[in-house]
Design brief:
8 helices; mainly alpha; 0% strand
Length: 165
């Protein structure tokens, strides 16, 4: 993805694209910020409608993450992977990941207390990998959601019995 190609596909002048995004990194940052905003909206709405149980909250996290990636299309996993290409984009990605993990920690705290960062990172890694596999058709969305759900429930159970540092 290049800014000249974006201008061509959008049928607008190149200077407009450069004025708006500045660089390819700027474009990727905006795409990721839009993805994150949509993900937060989907997750917040699902959380409000969910049952206040571990099963309800784990289902919200699993389904909203996978659904959001699939809603964004096959390109968002590539955008997420591209963020690692520059320090400024990596920082944006880490900031949004921290917000997502804190939201999950808060949602799951009633069932396991304070969940360690390592467990939340494992959950996030699983969410990204499973969503990517669903977006590329390697597995179904239902399979991705079910596996992520089981990962979350297992993480909470391990944390509740003191198995995660």
């Amino acid at each position: 993805m290049t800014l000249p190609r974006l201008a061509e596909r959008a049928n607008i002048a190149k200077p407009v694209v450069y004025d708006h995004f500045g660089t390819r990194s700027g474009l990727l940052a905006v795409l990721y910020q839009d993805f994150d905003a949509r993900q937060s909206e989907i997750m917040d709405a699902a959380f409000q409608a969910s049952e206040p149980t571990l099963e309800g909250r784990a289902s919200v996290i699993a389904s909203s993450y996978v659904d959001c990636v699939l809603f964004q299309g096959r390109e968002i996993p590539g955008v997420i992977a591209s963020l690692a290409g520059s320090p400024e984009l990596e920082e944006i990605k880490r900031e949004y990941q921290a917000v997502f993990m804190e939201k999950c920690r808060t949602m799951l705290a009633p069932f396991a207390g304070d969940i360690a960062g390592a467990g939340l990172r494992a959950m996030l890694g699983a969410a990204e990998a499973l969503s990517y596999a669903a977006a590329t058709g390697e597995i179904t969305a239902a399979q991705a959601q079910a596996e992520l759900y089981e990962t979350i429930v297992a993480m909470v159970a391990r944390n509740a019995r003191g198995g995660t540092p």
